[in-house]
Amino acid sequence: MLPQMVDWQHLNWQPNAEQQLQFQRLYELIIKGNQTLNLTRITEPLHFWEKHLWDSLRGIMPLLEVRGERLEVRGERLEEELVQHSAFKIVDIGTGAGFPGIPTAIALPDSQVTLLDSTRKKIAFLDSLIAELSIGNVNTVTGRAEVVGKESQHQQAYDIALIRAVGSASVCAEYALPFLKSGGLAVLYRGNWTTEETETLQNTVKRLGGAIEKVEEFTTPLSNSIRHCVYIRK
Ligand code: SAH
Fold first, then answer.
1. What CATH number corresponds to the domain at position 202?
2. Which residue has the least CA distance to atom 6 on ligand 1?
3. Among residues 19, 55, 59, 93, which one has the fewest Cβ atoms lying within 10 Å of its Cβ?
4. Into how many domains does the chain fold?
């Protein structure tokens, strides 16, 4: 079982009962899939919650916040408008076992999430996972980011590109930027980060027609590990 009372407060966000159930089911299906596929080494419930669920959502916190603020400020009557505002087209590049894409799709049910990976076996697993979870706002693509990002139905087609643990920051930027519409946002999930890395990345990003908007440092809530998210605006 996933822990029930874990603290989502650092995110300024709380799952509803249905989302809580989907996270629980997701956890069970990944543990089951792990018996035949090498999906993840993180299987202990609290570690899974922190490193896969919480970490995935920490990167999209700006999107979760937009939702909350609008709700509070403008009230229930405008909920329909709000729903439209949070209907993003999102791609998760090198999704592996579905992170950060699947928790993102659960947290943002009005957005459409495309999970991309070059490993066919992982995508086959994700297809069955999506069916069993019955989440309607996720689709999958098998292929290499550097190829798929140049195909007409994917190039400049997304509002948000997520990328975690796929390569160096520059490689991640190279993969992500082509997918984005002008004004779109790439979120690079990183562990340690130095100012020198920002400088190196700046050159790549400039060449690709983007700008580093912000580098956020944060501490994970259970193991107090330092992590970073790099936000690049196209
Ligand atoms: N994002 C997940 C998985 C990281 S492992 C997580 O953070 O848990 C890296 C994944 O990226 C692997 O599943 C691998 O198949 C995929 N990958 C590596 N290079 C890729 C490329 N060029 N295009 C698409 N997927 C790639």
1. 3.40.50.150
2. 99
3. 19
4. 1
